[in-house]
Amino acid sequence: MSFQMSLYGAAEGLGPPVTWEQEHRQPLGTKAELRQSLDRLLPGLRWSESGELLFASGPFGGEEHALELSLFGGPHERLLDFSVYASPPAIRLIMSGLDLNYCCAVESCTLRDPFAAGDHWYGAAR
What we know:
Blueprint: E1 3-8, H1 31-41, E2 46-50, E3 53-60, E4 63-72, E5 82-86, H2 88-98, E6 102-105
Antiparallel strand pairs: 1-5, 1-6, 2-3, 3-4, 4-5
């Protein structure tokens, strides 16, 4: 089972971003820089762009369409997070490869721990 997650890096011990009084997310780079990093981690991504949205889908773990990525921002803007629709194993790879420490469910604004989730999201709330 997959959920749409926001991935980012920030100081340890923070709650979800909706509880913050100021911004704590660390810049990840521009869309082009982040795309290049994701391409290295996840060979076979298929990218498309529409305005400020850069979207990718691709294979993982033997499945042809196992994940989706959304990067939103202007061409020179430093992104603070991006959205991923994938199972915990794919998210673990992305978070480890990009040195990210937060995974927040977009719909519920709850922090999730893909490293404690096994292959599924059941019981993985932090």
